[in-house]
């Protein structure tokens, strides 16, 4: 006799469509058993995206200073708007990561970055400094989502023991975007012939205003190209499967409140040291790159903006090479020792820039850029590694990103010193102090690891 009793079939969970599947295995501590190379490279390609925006700021500072007749201090507000956006949005971005996923936070960041770029269209027509600062701030909001996600996510996409090296590899992609941004600015924003200051010197009244507006129209051109790339990146991320990269061994891993996390981190002295050092480092990096073009023009009276921006291309190439060399050295010695060596050489180079007032100092700014190589990624991963309670990882990563506010403050101080002393060269003492802090931090880490 046939049994006509119907048995309920076990429902098959719906799977999201992904063109590019994840093949690595998620471990209980949030790391993977091996590096999923396609996902890792795609994630690493985000690093050039915020690098391009950051390097374009160095172009905008020079352009705005002349057109809006700004002091060095006032022109540095470009960086304040940019890094201020990072500071304000990092914690909200971490909350999105905790509630959803790293991938969704990245997609939100790409979308907001695109919106910020489109704001350059009305800004270039309204032609006021404050509107440009608002557009730059909007871009930074999107970038804060990207950096808060990507830096921590890169450290998790693979085995735990290669965390620092992996983040340094991702950071190696950064100079590619920085070079692309400066090249776009050099040829699409800066013109040929005499410097912008010389061209505007003989203009008055409506003639000067019209010329300034014409020059400001050029500022939106690089952002058209960036928007196209951002749309392509969004599509690729939607089609690619990514791991959750969240610990599974503790059922309440993601339940920590912000207040609890902040209380935990406030008592973590090593974490606080890392935050302070990252603040000083990113401020120094931003200041050196913000004023390299101005330094070249102050030491070489006949050079124009387009020619001076070539030194920034060399700087980013040096930055790239510095990272490659640092990655190689980290296979031979500890990351802290590599950071220490780079810090000593960087401090000596900045002292040279400050004391020697000829064009050789500009070439030393290129050398300093090379010596920035391992700094951000090494300090970031070592600082994040001090967070042993993994319930706080996402928020801790966001707070490290918030230390980028140094990029809003240190350039202002260096610009103020340049205005006070009347010398762009002397102002590099501010950056020198910052690199000395990195040296002290790395030496302290070496002692603890001995």
TrEMBL record:
<feature type="transmembrane region" description="Helical">
    <location>
        <begin position="311"/>
        <end position="330"/>
    </location>
</feature>
<keyword id="KW-0813">Transport</keyword>
<dbReference type="InterPro" id="IPR005275">
    <property type="entry name" value="Lfuc_symporter_FucP"/>
</dbReference>
<feature type="transmembrane region" description="Helical">
    <location>
        <begin position="337"/>
        <end position="355"/>
    </location>
</feature>
<feature type="transmembrane region" description="Helical">
    <location>
        <begin position="104"/>
        <end position="121"/>
    </location>
</feature>
<dbReference type="InterPro" id="IPR050375">
    <property type="entry name" value="MFS_TsgA-like"/>
</dbReference>
<feature type="transmembrane region" description="Helical">
    <location>
        <begin position="76"/>
        <end position="97"/>
    </location>
</feature>
<feature type="domain" description="Major facilitator superfamily (MFS) profile">
    <location>
        <begin position="39"/>
        <end position="446"/>
    </location>
</feature>
<keyword id="KW-0812">Transmembrane</keyword>
<feature type="transmembrane region" description="Helical">
    <location>
        <begin position="35"/>
        <end position="56"/>
    </location>
</feature>
<dbReference type="Pfam" id="PF07690">
    <property type="entry name" value="MFS_1"/>
</dbReference>
<protein>
    <submittedName>
        <fullName>L-fucose:H+ symporter permease</fullName>
    </submittedName>
</protein>
<feature type="transmembrane region" description="Helical">
    <location>
        <begin position="279"/>
        <end position="299"/>
    </location>
</feature>
<feature type="transmembrane region" description="Helical">
    <location>
        <begin position="393"/>
        <end position="417"/>
    </location>
</feature>
<feature type="transmembrane region" description="Helical">
    <location>
        <begin position="221"/>
        <end position="239"/>
    </location>
</feature>
<feature type="transmembrane region" description="Helical">
    <location>
        <begin position="361"/>
        <end position="381"/>
    </location>
</feature>
<feature type="transmembrane region" description="Helical">
    <location>
        <begin position="167"/>
        <end position="190"/>
    </location>
</feature>
<feature type="transmembrane region" description="Helical">
    <location>
        <begin position="127"/>
        <end position="146"/>
    </location>
</feature>
<keyword id="KW-1003">Cell membrane</keyword>
<dbReference type="InterPro" id="IPR020846">
    <property type="entry name" value="MFS_dom"/>
</dbReference>
<dbReference type="InterPro" id="IPR011701">
    <property type="entry name" value="MFS"/>
</dbReference>
<dbReference type="GO" id="GO:0005886">
    <property type="term" value="C:plasma membrane"/>
</dbReference>
<keyword id="KW-0472">Membrane</keyword>
<dbReference type="GO" id="GO:0015535">
    <property type="term" value="F:fucose:proton symporter activity"/>
</dbReference>
<keyword id="KW-1133">Transmembrane helix</keyword>
<feature type="transmembrane region" description="Helical">
    <location>
        <begin position="423"/>
        <end position="441"/>
    </location>
</feature>
<dbReference type="InterPro" id="IPR036259">
    <property type="entry name" value="MFS_trans_sf"/>
</dbReference>
């Amino acid at each position: 006799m046939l049994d006509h009793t119907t048995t309920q079939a076990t429902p098959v969970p719906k799977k999201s469509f992904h063109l590019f599947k994840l093949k690595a295995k998620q471990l209980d501590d949030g790391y993977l058993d091996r590096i999923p190379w396609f996902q890792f490279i795609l994630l690493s390609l985000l690093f050039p995206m915020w690098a391009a925006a950051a390097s374009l700021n160095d172009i905008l500072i020079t352009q705005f200073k002349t057109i809006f007749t700004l002091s060095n201090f006032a022109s540095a507000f470009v960086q304040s708007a940019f890094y201020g956006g990072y500071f304000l949005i990092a914690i909200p971005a971490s909350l999105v990561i905790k509630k959803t996923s790293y991938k969704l936070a990245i997609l939100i960041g790409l979308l907001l970055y695109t919106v910020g770029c489109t704001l350059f269209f009305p800004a270039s027509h309204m032609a006021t400094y404050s509107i440009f600062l608002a557009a730059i701030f909007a871009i930074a909001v999107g970038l804060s989502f990207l950096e808060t996600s990507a830096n921590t996510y890169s450290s998790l996409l693979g085995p735990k023991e290669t965390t620092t090296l992996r983040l340094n590899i991702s950071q190696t992609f950064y100079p590619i975007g920085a070079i692309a941004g400066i090249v776009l600015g050099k040829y699409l924003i800066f013109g040929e012939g005499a410097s912008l200051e010389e061209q505007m010197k003989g203009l008055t009244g409506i003639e000067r205003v019209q010329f300034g507006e014409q020059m400001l129209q050029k500022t939106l051109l690089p952002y058209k190209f960036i928007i196209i790339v951002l749309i392509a990146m969004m599509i690729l991320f939607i089609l690619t499967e990514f791991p959750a990269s969240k610990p599974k061994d503790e059922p309440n891993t993601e339940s920590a409140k912000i207040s609890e996390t902040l209380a935990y981190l406030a008592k973590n002295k090593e974490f606080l040291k890392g935050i302070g050092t990252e603040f000083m480092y990113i401020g120094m990096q931003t200041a050196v790159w913000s004023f390299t073009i101005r330094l070249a023009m102050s030491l070489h009276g006949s050079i124009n903006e387009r020619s001076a921006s070539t030194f920034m291309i060399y700087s980013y190439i040096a930055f790239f090479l510095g990272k490659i060399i640092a990655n190689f050295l980290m296979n031979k010695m500890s990351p802290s020792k590599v950071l220490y060596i780079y810090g000593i050489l960087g401090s000596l180079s900045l002292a040279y820039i400050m004391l020697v007032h000829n064009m050789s100092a500009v070439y030393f700014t290129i050398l300093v850029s090379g010596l920035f190589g391992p700094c951000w990624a090494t300090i970031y991963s070592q600082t994040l590694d001090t967070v042993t309670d993994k319930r706080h990882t996402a928020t801790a990563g966001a707070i490290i990103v918030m230390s980028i506010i140094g990029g809003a403050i240190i350039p202002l101080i260096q610009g103020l010193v340049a205005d006070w002393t009347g010398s762009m060269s002397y102002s590099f003492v501010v950056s020198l102090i910052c690199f000395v802090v990195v040296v002290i931090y790395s030496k302290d880490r070496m002692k603890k690891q001995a």
